[in-house]
Amino acid sequence: MMSPTRELFKRDKHNPIITYRDVPYPCNTVFNPGAAIVDGETLLLLRVEDLEGRSHLTVARSRDGIKNWRVESEPLLAPWHKRNPYEAFGCEDARLTYLEELGKWVIAYSAYSLMGAGVALALTSDFKSVERLGLVLAPSNKDAALFPRKIGDKYWMLHRPVSGTIEHIWLTESPDLLHWGRPWMTITERGGPWWDGYKVGANTIPIETEEGWLILYHGVKQFSAGPMYRMGAALLDLENPHRLLARLPYWILGPRECYEVTGEVPNVLFCCGHTLVGDEIRVYCGAADTSVCLATASLSELLDALREYRVE
């Protein structure tokens, strides 16, 4: 089948919606936010790179999710605590999952240190204070995204371990959020000339739909001038996420605008967070590791596109 004749995602006219100028303290860049609707507002957990070069996570809020962002004056999670050696180099790329049975949000983030990047979890009920659960998956591993409900009697999480030069998307499960096991590889990098041939990793947390778990993921193609990060989509079975139901062969959002192709890391659109209101899905992306931008799509149109590529 041919690629679509139009892009599924539309960029917001206000892009970039957040830059370093919106942060009320000195910083280098702001990008790759987790996202959620909290108390009727859009909440972003921004990755902010400081003037030393390390990243921390800071809360921003907006009533309409587009403009008039109120950014906190201090980070929520920062690598300044001596008792947390595994995040001494930075706290990066948060994904936010609300677990109703706990009444709390789980923050999955990359804890970066001399040992590499590993997966850490923290809990919060108000995004004013956090309870660190600590490192739960050892380096080198990142792009963790927790499912928004138990499947069976277990918590499930996407993650992306590194094995040599191989970087696929894996599943792992846990009875208690602390002990994770039974790994299962679910979405592969495709190799060759494909847009997601070099490596893949989860973008936002899984989205539950009638068709299955919608997985938005990033794929990387390696060019002679460097890598390019774009977004794709796949579907996993609702009650058996080991089972891949569909995967689009083409990318659905990639760097084109000047703020996406030029910056600290050129040619990168990297999304860690989404919100869903009715049929509209909003994705909040880091643009060139420099600013935050917004794009929207119709959830039903995404599912229609995936329906054409079901593997069963």
What does this protein structure show overall?
The protein has two helices and 21 strands. The protein starts with 9 loop residues before the first strand and ends in a 5-residue tail after the last helix. A hairpin with a 3-residue loop joins β20 (280-287) and β21 (291-298). It has a single domain, classed as Tachylectin-2, Chain A (5 Propeller), CATH 2.115.10. It is 4% helix and 49% strand. The strands form five sheets. Strands 14, 15, 16, 17 and 18 form a five-stranded antiparallel sheet that branches. It is globular. The protein has 312 residues and is mainly β.
Question: Would you kindly provide a brief summary of this structure?
Answer:
With 312 residues, this protein is mainly beta.
The shape, in one word, is globular
Distance between the termini: 16 Å
The SSE order reads: EEEEEEEEEEEEEEEEEEHEEEH
* Subunit organisation of the chains: single chain
Mean pLDDT: 95
Number-wise, the strands total: 21
CATH architecture: 5 Propeller
CATH topology: Tachylectin-2, Chain A
User: With helices defined by DSSP (H or I, 4 residues minimum), what is the helix count?
Assistant: 2
CATH class: Mainly Beta
CATH H-level homologous superfamily name: Glycosyl hydrolase domain, family 43
- How large a portion of the residues is in β-strands, by DSSP E? over 45%
Helical content band:
under 10%
